[in-house]
Amino acid sequence: MTDFGAAAYAAEQTTAERNTAPAVKMALIESLSGTFANTGEAVYRNIYWAMERVNARGGVALPTSAGGPRPLALERYDSKGQNEEALSALRAAIDDGAQIVLQGNSSATAAVLIEAINKHNEREPNKRVLFLNYSAVDPILTNEKCSFWHFRFDAHADMRMAALMEVMREDKALKSVYLIGQDYSFGQAVLREAKKQLAAQRPDVAVVGDELHPVGRVKDFAPYAVKIKASGAQAVVTGNWGNDLTLLVKAAREVGYEGSFYTFYGNALGAPAAIGDAGIGKVVAVADWLPNVPGAQSEVFYQAFRERFPKPQDDYVHMRMQLMVEALAQSIERAGSTDPVAVARQMEKASVQLSGQGGSMRAADHQFQQALVVGVMDRKGAPGVKFDVEGSGYGFRVVRQIAPAKAEQPHGCKMSKY
To answer: Are 241 and 264 in contact (CB under 8 A)?
Structure first.
């Protein structure tokens, strides 16, 4: 546990002890050690901050018959980046009384958690849990594998790719791309959708490379970067995240690759600093929100996060995670109970707003519908780039804002309801 994690957890326990009503227990199951520990810690900071906001207003308001107002409590479970460890963490969290499970930084892990929670909730109806997903974006999770118990608050891979395509479609100079991704369900889905959407919208663009690599195990991306440069690709399209993205862009810079990067997650976790000036005007990222989204409310929101977490390395804030916790609080209050079925039924109707941003849950597949933005990397202080990333001197200028109705995609979910 990081210094912040230990201190925050201790403060949380003290707050819960002061409150006579039992806390609503939330379990974060995430990589908190190993290659992707930084991504897990970034999630923890975001969810903890969102939870603090709810508790500062008295917790979730429940009627006296349901125990009155109750605080939210967040406990950490380290999956160590392994599905089996995640399943062990799930069992431990349920044994500890968790009612809400939170996970997102692996679609493969999310898939096994959905299956395990489906079985558990069927076997033990008195200990049911809900699964809130903030980052696992394989489309299958709200299509073939959709579940009444699972709610996704991030735009899935096809939605994100469509947003990137809004920018790629207008880049008439673009004639060749190299596709590279992590070799698991999400990475495969990104490349599959990239080929599909390029064929439909930019048939003039040649795919000169199509490659998958092991997740979290490549320490030297130079051989991949050399192939990318040798291909003559004008741009790289990747869904890589965490160190797999940072090391990739760093290697590309070191071998002298001068093309663009169209990314899902190129806006933080060391990527801007790794690529430096070579990324100005060339690294494109899609997100549900970026710090330089225009508007006073957005700016106040971002500055509040930076005041709470002032260290440059902690500068990774996710609006969707704040909206997710707000949706949870709203759903519990409207249910008048913490019963998972009652809360889930309200979550299907959740509609939340925060700092000028907002979204609503689509009941048919439990896919949150929200605006998306696309940003291009530039130097801090350039027009539209008031804020940089992680003290790197580089930020992202918003070049496209996509309304929820435009970002929405069809689904194939056939869900059993309760």
So the answer is: yes
CA 57 to mean position of chain CA atoms = 26
The total of other beta-carbon atoms located within 10 Å of residue 132's CB is: 24
3-state SS, residue 128: coil
Q: Which residue has the higher pLDDT, 16 or 258?
A: 258
pLDDT score, position 393: 97
Answer yes or no: are the C-beta atoms of 149 and 118 closer than 8 Å: yes
How far is it, in rounded angstroms, from Cα 256 to Cα 193?
A: 28
Phi, psi dihedrals of residue 260, rounded to the nearest 5°: -90, 160
pLDDT tens-digit map of 224-245: 999 999 999 999 999 998 889 9
Asked if 24 and 332 count as a contact pair (C-beta separation under 8 A), the reply is yes
How far is Cα 175 from Cα 246, in angstroms, rounded to an integer? 25
Q: Is the pLDDT of residue 16 over 80?
A: no
So what's the pLDDT on residue 8?
54
Query: How is residue 70 annotated by DSSP?
Result: B
Residue 11 has pLDDT above 90, yes or no: no
CA 5 to chain centroid:
19
pLDDT value at position 89? 98
CA–CA dist 170, 173 (Å, integer): 9
Question: Using CB atoms within 10 A of its CB, is residue 144 exposed (0-12), middle (13-18) or buried (19+)?
Answer: exposed
Q: For residue 177, which of 208, 201, 204, 199 has the smallest C-alpha distance? A: 208
Confidence bin at 4 (pLDDT 50/70/90): low
pTM for this structure? 0.91
Which residues have C-beta within 8 Å of that of residue 303, sequence separation ≥ 6?
Answer: none
Q: What angle do CA 314, 100, 64 make, to 5 degrees?
A: 115
C-alpha to C-alpha distance for 278 and 67, rounded to whole angstroms: 57
Q: What tokens were used for 207?
A: 């795919």
Contact 176, 233 (CB under 8 A): yes
